[in-house]
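Fill in residues.
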């Protein structure tokens, strides 16, 4: 998912707040990873759950 898609799913409108409060901590905790890690600011950048993220999601219930 793109950052915009994630923000929409979480009902967050402020990109700076989203990146600082959610995205960066999820990357740091290895819950999500970049699809293009060598180009973090690419307009084509997307994010996906890591195995750790999938385990955490299953443990805490799905997002739906």
């Amino acid at each position: 998912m793109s950052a915009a898609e994630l923000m929409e799913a979480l009902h967050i409108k402020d990109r700076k707040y989203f990146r600082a409060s959610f995205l960066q901590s999820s990357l740091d905790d290895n819950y999500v990873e970049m699809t293009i890690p060598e180009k973090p600011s690419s307009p084509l950048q997307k994010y996906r759950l890591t195995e750790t993220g999938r385990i955490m999601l299953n443990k805490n219930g799905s997002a739906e």
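The first helix runs from residue 3 to 10.
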